[in-house]
Write a structure and sequence with these properties.
Elements lengths: L4 E7 L4 E4 L8 H17 L3 E6 L5 E6 L9 H14 L1 H14 L6
Antiparallel strand pairs: 1-2, 1-3, 3-4
Length: 108
């Protein structure tokens, strides 16, 4: 199984947001934008959203929902992620570059 590094996440069940302290060097505005994205996602769709880097440095959206959670909007989930990938493309690509340079040690 490939190792993943969680950047941040939110849960509609616990109504909590998580941010990985390893990324505390990111600008405050970026951290706030990530929090807004995660919290709005869980408010709109439900479930749990985590943003994770895979071992190659690609940023992935991982969604889980509790068994029997009939309020979780699976179609809305896919649409919301697609919206984020389109509207926040520059931010997401910058985060991938940041991870590749500072965590994986790649040269630009």
């Amino acid at each position: 199984m490939k190792e993943k590094t969680v950047l941040c996440g939110a849960s509609s069940y616990e109504e909590k947001y998580y941010f990985n302290r390893q990324f505390s060097a990111l600008p405050e505005s970026v951290r706030q934008e990530l929090q807004i994205m995660c919290v709005l996602y869980t408010e709109d769709v439900g479930g749990i959203l985590t943003m994770e880097f895979d071992e190659d440095g690609n940023l992935e959206f991982r969604v889980t929902a509790a068994d029997g959670d009939y309020l979780f909007d699976e179609i809305g989930s896919a649409l919301k992620i697609k919206q984020y990938q389109t509207e926040k493309r520059e931010l997401l690509e910058s985060l991938e570059l940041y991870y590749r340079v500072f965590f994986l040690g790649e040269k630009i």
